[in-house]
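[Meeting: bench + compute handoff]

Bench side (C.D.) handed over the final construct sequence. Compute side (W.E.) agreed to return the predicted structure before the next meeting so the bench team could plan truncations. Sequence as handed over:
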Amino acid sequence: MNYLLIDLGGTKCRTTLRNQKNEPVIIPHHVNVKVTDDVLKSIIESIKPYNNYINKKTVIKIAVPGLVKKNKILQLPNLNIGEWDLAKELKRLYYNKVLVYNDLEAAWHGEYTDKNFLLVYASTGVGGAINGENIEFGRRITINTNGEIKYHEIEKTLTKNDLEKNEFILEHLTGGLALGKAAVIKGLQLGVNINKYGEELDQYAHNNEIARSVFEDAGSILGKAIQAYAETHKVKNVIIGGSLGTNTYYFNAIKKQVKNINIQKSKFLNSSEAIFRGLLKL
């Protein structure tokens, strides 16, 4: 049996066709498509190169950056999408079995080494999973102006009305979009593609103190949040991934804030690979 595996991110959609042994069915191994306002169209564009290879037995598995329940999307915050039955939309076009998962849950299974580990991915936004369950890490943790950190055990993503005026959502301070804004505020014109923040900004930072400070400031905040969560939930192992998470300056800043915890970088330079491998397991 073959599986069409789709990683829908905040800025890109990556798709691959693989068999049960995780072997690519055709070349290229994967297709990248920039996500536009028409998200469904972006997904379909990423699938097109594989259309001739999809048959009735092909199972479509898609990982999305947001809340998923009973195969339906409840919310994709970074894509400004609320409730959406994406599986139903895709079935109309392909008539295949379609399964929808949270991307961090899939990535957790792809990174799997030990049940007791927290996976945190930083890219366009910030997310996390523990024991195979999405915990909405970047959007349930808030920081107030005094530097105090709170984790909100809630069912839905926080809105402005849920927050006090002096509180900020973690991913708004530490994700890729936040880093871009921070760089501009500090007077740095990056000129980089947000899809490659981890790679391009890392190279840029080698010779630019402001670029390094952007990474270090954001990484320090994320590290404090990870430490607070790990202490409360007795987590001993943390894996950091995503296009930003594998960045040298960002990761080192996170690591400085984490005490008495084993913290490692993702074994996959590209987070989509962990997601694809996890989707095959789910």
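W.E. noted at the follow-up: The longest strand covers residues 12-19. C.D. will use this when planning the next construct.
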